[in-house]
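Example S7 (structure tokens).
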């Protein structure tokens, strides 16, 4: 029966595949309890609507909905094709005797199973599944999980799966004993220290992710955790230490009076993307020697949302400069580390706004 409000949010066990879901009818803005699992997808704002009660439009993700039943059938068949190490890990994660001390959520197990399926399942299992790439040098696959569902635990599972398989079979190119974890911010980086196998309070021991007999083998691997900006750009070093000299003999350091990473500073620009008001936090604030303020963003790959952000940043800079009293503000984006020096030396010529 359709209803305007939901009286029970939790209708499934977190340890089993969902059997029911609340189905939403956007035309009537009502809910009804439907059998089966909710299809994977996301909701976008309706056109240019800015209303907070906008029902939105559901957009299905066909690839996820195509993969889910394949992984389920593979699971029910006993994970054919996996290595001995992978089989041992899966048995350990699913062992009922461990449930009293720790039991993984269904979404966590399905996430790691899907990653394993993509790598180890027989090719026949994946016929008709085409995962588009971004054209880069590395194969990158996204495992999207909701906030609070235990993504870090899944990361620990994936790390153990890779390292232990590589230690057991060094020639197997599908695995690696060296794992690079890229964090989106310094705060997140500190929280991910639990992914270091030899670190105090690591998740591998705290959540019994690896059988005790395999812990020493796990520690033969190396987990490197780096902040995204430091890894891709080394921007702090580019700005603080770079001593490159341009053709006029001027040093880029001479162009900078002071700089700060925009972390917990509260500097943000509001923008609207797909009908939703969001917050944009640029990477760095730089005070140039000549007195101008430079908002510096480092970005390896542009998206439509990035371009919308910068349009609002440009409007913000123009408004501040027109208002006066806050100095002269510019903005720039470096798509490659080598561009930073030129931006610092010639900010007004390198995509600066305002």
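Recovered sequence:
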């Amino acid at each position: 029966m359709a209803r305007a409000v939901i009286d029970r949010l939790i209708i499934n066990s977190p340890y089993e595949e969902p059997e029911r879901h609340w189905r939403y009818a956007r035309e009537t803005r009502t809910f009804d309890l439907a059998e089966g699992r909710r299809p994977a997808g996301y909701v976008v704002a309706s056109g240019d609507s800015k209303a907070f009660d906008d029902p939105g439009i559901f957009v299905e993700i066909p690839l996820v909905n195509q993969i889910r039943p394949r992984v389920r059938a593979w699971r029910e068949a006993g994970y054919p094709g996996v290595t001995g190490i992978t089989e041992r890990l899966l048995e350990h994660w699913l062992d009922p005797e461990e449930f009293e001390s720790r039991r993984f959520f269904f979404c966590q197990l399905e996430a790691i199973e899907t990653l394993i399926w993509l790598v180890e399942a027989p090719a026949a299992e994946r016929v008709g599944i085409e995962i588009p790439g971004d054209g880069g040098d590395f194969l990158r696959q996204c495992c999207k999980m909701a906030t609070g569902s235990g993504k870090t635990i899944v990361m620990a599972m994936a790390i153990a799966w890779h390292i232990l398989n590589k230690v057991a079979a060094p020639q197997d190119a599908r695995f690696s004993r060296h794992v690079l974890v890229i964090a989106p911010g310094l705060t997140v980086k500190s929280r991910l220290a639990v992914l270091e196998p030899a670190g105090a309070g690591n998740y591998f021991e705290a959540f019994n992710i690896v059988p005790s007999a395999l812990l020493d083998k796990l520690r033969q691997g190396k987990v490197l955790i780096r902040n995204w900006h430091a890894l891709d750009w080394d921007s702090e070093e580019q700005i603080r230490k770079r001593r490159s000299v341009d053709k006029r003999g001027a040093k880029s350091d001479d162009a900078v009076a002071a700089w700060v990473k925009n972390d917990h500073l509260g500097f943000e620009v509001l923008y609207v993307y797909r009908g939703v008001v969001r917050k944009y936090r640029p990477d760095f604030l730089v005070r140039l020697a000549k007195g101008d303020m430079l908002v510096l963003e480092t970005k390896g790959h542009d998206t439509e949302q990035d371009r919308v952000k910068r349009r609002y940043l440009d409007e913000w800079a123009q408004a501040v400069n027109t208002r006066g009293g806050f100095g002269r503000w510019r903005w720039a984006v470096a798509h490659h580390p080598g561009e930073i020096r030129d931006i610092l030396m010639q900010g007004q010529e390198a995509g600066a706004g305002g």
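Notes on this example. The chain has three domains: 1-60, 63-133+142-231, 234-349.
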